Amino acid sequence: MSLSSSSGTNEAIAGAPTGHQFWSVDSAPARLTRPLPLWGAPVVLAVFLAMSTALLFAVNRVPALVEAFPNRDFVFSPYIGTHSIPLRIFIVSFYVAFSTMFGSTLWGKIRFFLELMLYYVLVVGALDAINIIGFRLTGFVYSLHVIEILSGLIGFFVFSAKLLDHGSMPARAEAPFSRRFKLVSLVRLTVAVIVSIAVAVGVDRLELPLVFDLRNVALLGGTGPGVFLFLPTLFFVLYVDGTLQSLLRRKSAFAPLVTVIVPAHNEEHVIARTIAAIDASAAQYDGELTVTILNNASTDGTIAAAEAAIAAASHLTGRVLDVPTPGKAIALNRGIAETGTEFVIRIDADTQVQPQTIALAMRHFSRADVGVVGGMPIAPGDGPFDRARTLEVLLKHGYYQVAYGAFDGTIGVPGMFAAYRTALVRDVGGFVQGMNGEDTDVSLRIGELGNRVVSDPSVVYVSEVPKTYKHLREQRMRWFRSVYHVSARNRTYLDSWELSVRGKVVLPFMLLNSARRAMTVPLAMFGALHLLLAFDPTGTLTGQAVLAVMLGAPALMGAFAALANGRVGALIGLPEYVVFRLLRSYLTLESVLSIAAAPPRKSDR
After folding, report:
1. Distance in angstroms (rounded) separating the CA atoms of residues 426 and 446
2. What is the pLDDT of residues 217-265, one digit of tens each?
3. Please, which of 267, 447, 495, 592 could form a disulfide with 453 given CB 3.0 to 4.6 Å?
4. Which residues, given as ranges, of the chain have pLDDT below 70?
5. Is 595 helix (H, G, I), strand (E, B) or coil?
């Protein structure tokens, strides 16, 4: 078993301590990350629990605060209805707790917290002010549970935005851009949003007992079923659209010359199997295929094993290049420089392609507008996390990525297997070094250059899944950090005036979702605490509601993705998947805690 490539890195570089066998120069870039002790996240959770308990007691027991905040939350205007939990208290408590562990100096921690609070109070305060003005002019007020939902979403996004500002991030790079496909993408997304809103509103207005029950068992502010259904409906509409487009665009065959590049560091134990799998796939491919193994500072017998495997292959030619400088991006860029074919495929050293993988991927390039093609990684099936990982990839790569493809909004194609037009990789500057997410970065930039980024679930390959918690922790912390690294390097897409659905919709959604995941475990704790203290007898929060949102919704989406991809057998892993999602949320919290604070400015010293 390889210890690296399903996580996108090499194994330890030469001379690294054996206790860090999953780390490499790519794993935790020194300038951008900091070592996070195992007690780091628990300390944040403990501070969060103490702060949220104190604030809940204050707004429910201190007479002056009870009078100032009759809604039992930091709400500054009248609203109708009730909420399930006071989300503004939750957000403030999390900001306090996170700030205690972020930043290298006391002033840095204070400044980070003050900026979080300033932006959050300004935005939610504006919501309350608009509500007061509307009430004075028309007598209309918003529903409290809707405001609580908006307050939570605002809190998530402010957190990610300020982390980008205060974290040590990759330097902003020049952002290649073309208006090609952008308007059509926006129109497709807008139509899907309108249809989804219509469905959600229609369901919300149904006077059915089931609808009433659903309204009372949602966690975020007593969310009605219409609000709850909006995102699932939107993704379903986009999934259907993306699937139809894929079927209409798909050609039966296209087999140009192609080069496969494989970065490898200390992969003696698996490289022969990887090359044999590529050879078997080459046998089903009508074009000529060349393999370049990029030996990246290996200290074992990787070179000899690779040369022997290439010599034994029947359907490909190949060579081994020595890349002595450690770094996966360095090896990949050497491979791109040495590639003479119009198309190139990168494959991780412990990824086993299937016989049809290359042929199914390359057929998409029969269309001149396709720049990147990815597929769906399948777990080997013999590890403790494999069944959960299978449902994870079915949902992400077999469902959500297809939905993003409907409006050309796909951002990341995993580097475990990705096919490119070689010239486009060069045009966007190659694979970036010194940060996490070089695979997402290059596909994002190729897409913004006016090319389609395709994720095809029929292009399957087997990719290793960590077999230990230590390896899983390293992998997920790096994966989740990459959202911030890629966003920081490509921030022009976020804040420029150019029309970019990826930059104005998908990247912000990814940042918001990352913050939501980082706050999932604290939110579960907060919901349980609010139930335990039972301050609000009129509230709609119940234990069933907490379980429904934390466990039920993920199980339903995982089951739907498995059925949509025709993998009924994957349903057996649903219980493990639900638990895995909670573990993944905890690891997301660790990942944001592992982001290094930006160096103090001269004026702060």
Report:
1. 10
2. 444 333 444 455 778 889 999 999 999 998 887 777 899 999 999 999 9
3. 447
4. 1-25, 204, 206-228, 534-552, 601-605
5. strand
Whether the Cβ atoms of residue 215 and residue 228 lie closer than 8 Å to each other: no
Question: What pLDDT does 215 receive?
Answer: 52
Q: Which of 562, 553, 563, 479 is nearest to 520 (CA)?
A: 553
Quick one: three-class SS letters along 131-172? HHHHHHHHCCCCEHHHHHHHHHHHHHHHHHHHHHHHECCCCC
pLDDT of residue 405: 95
CB-count exposure of residue 205 (10 Å: 0-12, 13-18, 19+): exposed
Calpha distance 601→605 (Å, rounded): 7
Q: Where is 294: in which H helix or E strand?
A: strand 289-296
Percent of the chain with pLDDT over 70: 87
pLDDT tens-digit series, residues 531-588? 888 666 555 555 555 665 566 677 888 899 999 999 999 999 999 999 999 999 999 9
Q: Which helix (H) or strand (E) holds 458?
A: strand 452-463
- Region for residue 49 given its phi and psi (left: phi exceeds 0; alpha: psi -120 to 50; beta: otherwise): alpha
For 157, 523, 527, the CA distances from 98, given in Å and listed in that order, are 15, 14, 18
Residue 221: what pLDDT? 36
Can you state the percent helix, strand and coil of the chain, rounding each to 5? 60, 10, 30
Q: Quick one: pLDDT at residue 589?
A: 97
Helix axes 574-593, 520-533, angle to 10 degrees: 100
Please name every residue paired with 355 in a beta bridge, in sequence order, or none if there are none. Answer: none
Look at residue 214 in the predicted model and tell me its pLDDT.
53
C-beta of residue 487 within 8 angstroms of C-beta of residue 511: yes
Rounded distance between C-alpha atoms, residue 159 and residue 151, angstroms: 12
* pLDDT given for residue 6 in this prediction: 34
The CA distance from 389 to 184, in Å, is: 34
CB neighbourhood size of 6 (10 A): 24
Angstrom distance (rounded) from CA 323 to CA 426: 19
- The full DSSP string for 489-538 is HTHHHHHSSS--HIIIIIHHHHHHHHHHHHTHHHHHHHHHHHHHH---TT
Supply the DSSP string of 39-66, one letter for each residue: THHHHHHHHHHHHHHHHHHHHHH-HHHH
Query: CB neighbours (10 Å) of residue 495?
Result: 9
Give the CA count within 13 Å in the CB-facing half-sphere of 336: 22
**Sheet harboring 258-264: ordered strands across?**
317-323, 289-296, 258-264, 343-347, 417-421, 370-378, 452-463, 351-353
Q: What is the pTM of this model?
A: 0.90
DSSP state of 8: T
**Which residues, in sequence order, are CB contacts of 30 under 8 Å at separation 6+?**
none
Query: What pLDDT score does 225 carry?
Result: 42
